């Protein structure tokens, strides 16, 4: 048990011998410049993404409107055909 505690103490003491690393004196300036560049650049990727979704939405609305228009004309034509056939049957029955 004492050997295990000694080993733990040695491991923890070895952390005290680690030297502190010194960053480059220009590191802070590089990071600051990158942040400033990001602020001034226009975000074109977000605009392109938004335009794609808007186009897809408008295309779906247009296709649905076209489908409703075509189907309503078919049903109107079918009603007209049914009325003509009913009229013909009525005429032939007399």
- Which outline best applies? elongated
The number of helical segments is 3
Largest sheet: none
Order of helices and strands: HHH
- Indicate the proportion of strand residues: under 5%
Give me the oligomer status. single chain
Give me the secondary-structure category. mainly alpha
Radius of gyration: 40 Å
- Could you give the count of β-strands? 0
Average pLDDT metric = 80
> How far from one another are the termini?
117 Å
The percent of residues in helical segments reads over 70%
Poorly predicted tracts of residues: none
Structural overview:
This protein has a domain of 39 residues. It is 82% helix and 0% strand. It has 3 helices and no strands. The termini are far apart. The model has no long low-confidence stretch (mean pLDDT 80).
């Amino acid at each position: 048990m004492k050997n295990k505690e000694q080993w733990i103490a040695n491991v923890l003491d070895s952390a005290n011998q680690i030297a502190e690393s010194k960053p480059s004196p220009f590191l802070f300036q590089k990071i600051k410049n990158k942040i400033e560049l990001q602020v001034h650049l226009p975000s074109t990727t977000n605009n392109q993404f938004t335009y794609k979704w808007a186009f897809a939405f408008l295309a779906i609305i247009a296709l649905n409107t076209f489908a409703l228009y075509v189907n309503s004309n078919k049903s109107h034509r079918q009603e007209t055909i049914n009325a003509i056939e009913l009229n013909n049957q009525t005429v032939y029955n007399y």
